Amino acid sequence: MLSTEVGYQESFKEVTDIQEAASENMAEVDNFKEDLNKTFPCRQSQINLLLSLFGQRHQYTYSSLFIYGHTGTGKTAVTTNILNHFKLPHVLVNCVECYSSRFLYEMILNSLHGNSVTESSDLVKCDNMNDFVRMFKQVSQEKGIDQETIYIVLDKAERLREMEMNILPAFLRLQELTQQNVCVILLSEIVWEKFRTGSGYCEPFVLHFSDYTNGKYNYQLIEIMMLDHPTEYDENFYRMYLNLVLSVFQMVCRNLKELHHLAKLNFQRYAEPVKTGEATAEDTRKLWKNIEPHLKKALQTVYLREVSR
Question: Where in the numbering of this chain does the ORC5 lid domain appear (predicted)?
């Protein structure tokens, strides 16, 4: 009877410990989610979905994810922030740097192995997809991560279309080919339909990072650009300036990075009358008259990163 009670107590303690660990994990996820939402405003739905898809370290996830959106929408930054924060085994490869399939294979394997490009004697060599599958299993076992989800993140994935025909289908089925818990994440600026060149593709889970500059999302764009507002000026003053910038450039530029660059480039000209005492921060007409010719001139050189002072 006594042994039965002890057994019950031990079982109850184990369940309690598991519940406490789960509660701590949930609290950590919630805190991280809150911080991430502050860093990347207006990306709550994408952040929540990615966190739910990744799950726990040992849980199987989708064999492939396709995340697309224009430059500056945060797809790469959000994905890598989540992977880095939870220290999930992953490899990030920019496909622009991979001039051949062999270079792509070797970059993934060496990054997973932890080899430096300067350590040429230790670099893994790989010629084809069959060798890649075999060596991927070998490296993951050597590193002791074969029982965890391994994420292969391929940025600028549209470049894969220029390589051998078997590369993209093989990466989409890598979980099946390796019989391991691996997820391939494709990051691209174009839609998934442009990747299909035939039948038999394993369809990935598709996630869209929409533009910030589409109609009702203008306020989102301003909120993001407000993160870098000059501390010596009032927030409302800088917000008014950003509204002016968007009203001028919105129709010709949809790139967040470029809009951010243009805003920073011309702000001192906008604030100059206030700094010299010629106008107040509320004198919007005079401030607009002062900045208007500079913004129109910058309009002619959008994306060129050269505006004469």
Answer: 238-305
